[in-house]
Amino acid sequence: MKTVIIGGVAAGLSAASQAKRQSPESEVVVLERSGDVSYAACGMPYNLFFRDKPVEKLYALSLETIRKERGIDYRLRQEVTAIDPVGKVVSVTDLATGKGYQERYDFLVYATGNSAIRLTAPGFDDSDVFCFKTLDDTRHVKQFIYDKAPKRAVLVGAGYTNLEVADVLTNLKIKPVILEKAPTILPSFCEEARAKVLDKVKERGIELITGVDIAEKAGGEVRSSAGVFPADLVVVAVGTRPNTALFAAAGGVLGTAGAAKVDRYLRTNLDSVFAGGDCAEHYVRQLGTNSYFPLGPAANKHGRVIGNNVANPGRMMEFWGIDQTAVFKFFELSIATTGLNERQLQALGKDYVKVFVDSPTRGEFPGGSTMRVVLFCQKGDGLLLGAQIVGEDVVAKRLDVLATAIYKQMTVFEIAELDLAYSPPYSPVWDPILVAANVAVKKV
Fold it and tell me: DSSP alpha helices (H): ranges in 315-441?
């Protein structure tokens, strides 16, 4: 049996590794267009802090380990130009030599990821304009920062990426201005959570302007509906698009957000073709349907399921789905969410209660801070529907408790009774989660 995988980052390498683990005698070929093996993309902004630390430190595994220890035929600089689903063959160009060849398959895994949306306004193809999506992007931004020593940056878009970048640039003594087209930032977060982030923006002296239309970049200026902004450096992070043109050209059906449409086994409509990672849909358990939520953990889980399924076509496993859990850092804040957000609850017509509490993160012990815990729970039975936490100190692991509660369909009555660990260095006697749950119990 031979499995060919298009794309070798998160989902692609996970699928390859699992397929070889489950079926060591099978042939697994990974065709990766870039010159980089699988890497931890979420670490890219923080690599900018270290002038002499190569971005290759973000590699998940070395090429030698992938090939020799895992037995995977992993090929770099290989661009797949066509898929023939009837003949079960892909056409490939070796970008190093320019030569073309064909690779047959028994199973094909489509794991091409997504690409940054680029602005088409004049001037946004200049050499001082960057996206922040790939390791090559990181290399270029890093070289520019340390070679040119920019002092002012314009960040177009106020999502997770540019908020992280704003944090990093500020610490590198580069002053950022953030321009956002939407009327507000972080639309998946409720007003109470967002307010904490906006307070931090103000505290750090970052200029953030929403409702902005970008007109052009002219030399060292970005011109917009909100005025003209000097920029030695521009970072555009206005969203991503699934890389599905090749799949669609072969007759593949697209679904949510233009991602490859998949079933619960991550099969596409094309015979013996699976899709996973940032180019594919993601099943959301609470919605009971597919959505699009391109993050690393889901991509790796996709890959593991696909690897199992190509190795065991007679006893495939389902992808269990996601609960939309995510976290990112913005200066001292951790900003985290899990489950359904308020906009989704309103769109679904849910009868829900929202509560939020501000709580200390530790007992009488140096170094503690505060966090805001927001719970969305079902009116009546108290089923936890979603949660958001914004604050300092240990936020992400507390959110993981609530993500687990959502996964197990717990109510706030049950959460309020959890036996959570207590010691002053780690939490107050009443952990913030318990405080929020007890407030919710009184309101449902």
Answer: 342-347, 396-407, 412-415, 432-441
